[in-house]
Design goal:
Length: about 600
């Protein structure tokens, strides 16, 4: 969950690294550091944001054409200067940056202490570089060989880049379980946790695979696997535009990404859907659609917001395709000996495509004979490469830590998959199929209409910015929306919030209702409408404050609720694509009014690449 940047070439390294760290700060922002090679191997690091580090270096000699940088999300050791990366080896001739967790670091550390090694931090990363140094010292091998031998011994996940004071043209990188991208330029190379720091300089990249080791020396790149066999890496051309990772005039990335949803949802459907011709094709599933239509069981694995999208997917698949679907937390899936059989399909959902728990769930499911379908946003990420087939969401980069457009993009792709499978299976009448396609094509313009309520939502946020608790309630397709709304509020405003099925309110949560409790109802005109109306009346009878998301033109609920926000009518299965937008805006405005760091909420990082 940390951010890695490194450069070697003919340019000044420091400006590239510091700009790259700022672009990766969504991956971790409790400390930052750089190492440069000039008159020795010099490490500069500081607790806090990248700007705090930058402010301390105004007098430092930063001239160098090689360097490594890191922005940290703490795992081993609290956030402070000494635990910040990079870390030196014992002789201070080597420096490392590391994303991941070394699970057996303690036993390695104890053995190294017996040999006289002294450690200055509480991190597993410092142990890693001392271990590499110890191997090199005891065997007399080259540094790259010492790294390879260390890779065979350490247990856990890592993406590392290492500098060597004795070799000013060399960087060594390796990965297992944590992402690492290599940008290929003219006589220069860029290393990063994702492509955002690289795209300004080159769109030619290599995604390093697990157990691979990359060495740049004297302007040449070689890649070997853990068995020391030379690899032929695939150089991929990125389609990412630099403008996509800038704020574009918005105050926060989160607000920009909320407003990008008409386009991102449309991009999910571009080339896949044409309602006029009855065209629906998911190219990434072409070879598996028949098998998927015949399966008896689908298991969806995901974490956080992606898990909520998976719940919506469960409802759509079961209603339209009549296939049994189970939605599992990927973080729990691998630890409970799940029942997976050949013929089962596992749909793995992840915005980044690097979520460690989801990757582990995939490997377990594959070992039991399941077919894996990946739903991801980042082309070339680990989950798409580990899947048998899949579909990219094409939402574009999402920099805000709290996911917004990722959710609606994932729901859109899951809806397309379910509709395609239902049509193939014969459980969807042709008229309904065409109507769903037409409805899908109208969703982007309907989201634009929902966004017009922004000023009204800001006024509502002002009324509730000091609340200590929220309850979110919805039925059917709107229950996952309630969960997602509560999560957004928790993530960025630090207000305690819980989402429940509205029908469950009387089974416990109603005890919390009083005149200080805001209750958000997703109360659109669907098959559960009358029941939700009754739930609202029960809350109002107990003096609860009701904020209701209602269908445009609703005359009844506005007479009961304290505040209402209208959304256009849509098919029940597609309502989550509209109903979640006001909840994103409500959370955003409450967080801003409370003075919270919206894009970088405390204790969170964007891509959870460690367990």
């Amino acid at each position: 969950m940390c951010g890695i940047v490194a450069y070697v070439g003919h340019r000044e390294a420091y400006p590239i690294i510091i700009k790259g760290l700022k672009r990766l700060e969504y991956r971790g922002y409790d400390s930052a550091g750089v190492a440069l090679l000039n008159d020795g191997l010099n490490v500069y690091k500081k607790k806090g944001k990248v700007k705090d580090l930058e402010d301390t270096l105004t007098e430092a000699n930063l001239t160098s054409t090689i360097g490594i940088g890191h922005t940290r999300w703490a795992t081993h050791g609290e956030p402070n200067d000494k635990n910040a990366h990079p870390h030196y080896s014992s002789n201070e001739k080597l420096a490392i940056i590391h994303n991941g967790i070394i699970e057996n670091y303690d036993s390695i550390k104890k053995n190294l202490i017996k040999k006289g090694h002294v450690f200055y931090s509480d991190t597993d990363s410092e142990v890693f570089i001392h271990f590499i140094e110890d191997i090199q010292k005891n065997t007399g091998c080259l540094l790259e060989e010492a790294v390879r031998l260390a890779m065979k011994e350490v247990v856990g996940a890592y993406a590392i880049v290492i500098m060597d004071a004795t070799n000013p043209s060399q960087l060594i990188a390796a990965r297992k379980g944590s992402p690492l991208v290599i940008g290929v330029g003219e006589g220069e190379f860029f290393f990063a946790s994702d492509a955002t720091p690289i795209i300004e300089y080159t769109n030619e990249v290599i995604y390093l695979n697990d157990y691979e080791l990359a060495v740049v020396r004297d302007g040449e790149l070689t890649v070997k696997n853990i068995d020391n066999i030379l690899q032929s890496p695939y150089v991929q051309t990125l389609e990412l535009e630099l403008e996509a990772i800038e704020k574009g005039g918005f105050e926060h990335f989160m607000l920009k990404e909320i407003y990008e949803q008409p386009r991102s949802v449309a991009d999910c459907m571009r080339g896949r859907v044409n309602a006029d011709s009855g065209h629906l094709v998911l190219g990434g599933l072409r070879d598996y659609i028949d098998k998927l239509a015949k399966t008896k069981r689908i298991v969806i694995v995901a974490c956080g917001t992606s898990w909520h999208a998976g719940l919506v997917g469960e409802y759509i698949f079961e209603e339209l395709a009549r296939i049994n679907v189970e939605v599992e937390y990927a973080s729990e899936f691998r630890y409970r000996n799940p029942i997976i059989k050949e013929g089962d399909f596992v749909i793995a959902i992840s915005q980044s495509g690097e979520t460690a728990d989801t990757l582990a769930a995939i490997e377990l499911a594959k070992s039991k004979g399941a077919t894996i379908i990946g739903v991801c946003n980042v082309v070339g990420a680990s989950i798409p490469r580990a899947s048998h087939a899949g579909a990219y969401t094409h939402a574009g980069p999402e920099i805000g830590v709290a996911s917004t457009k990722a959710f609606t993009a994932q729901v859109t792709v899951l809806a397309l998959m379910a509709i395609a499978v239902a049509r193939k299976k014969g459980t969807l009448h042709e008229d309904t199929f065409r109507r769903l396609l037409f409805e899908l094509e109208r969703i982007p313009s309907k989201i634009e209409k929902v966004l017009q309520a922004d000023e009204k939502i800001k006024v509502i946020a002002e009324q509730f910015k000091d609340a200590r608790n929220f309850i979110y309630l919805g039925r059917g397709y709107n229950f996952p929306v309630a969960l997602e709304g509560a999560l957004k509020l928790k993530e960025i405003s630090y207000i305690h919030a819980e989402g429940y099925p509205a029908a469950e309110m009387k089974h416990g949560p109603i005890a919390l209702i009083d005149e200080e409790m805001p209750v958000v109802f997703i109360a659109t005109k669907d098959s559960s409408y009358e029941k939700v109306v009754s739930n609202i009346q029960e809350v109002k009878a107990r003096k609860g404050k009701v904020i209701a998301i209602v269908t445009e033109g609703d005359k009844l609920i506005p007479t009961m609720a304290d505040y209402t926000i209208e959304i256009p009518a849509a098919h029940d299965a597609l309502i989550p694509l509209l109903a979640t937008i006001p909840l994103q805006l409500l959370s955003y405005h409450i967080a801003v009014l409370r003075g919270c760091n919206v894009d970088q909420p405390r204790n969170l990082a964007k891509s959870v690449t460690v367990e």
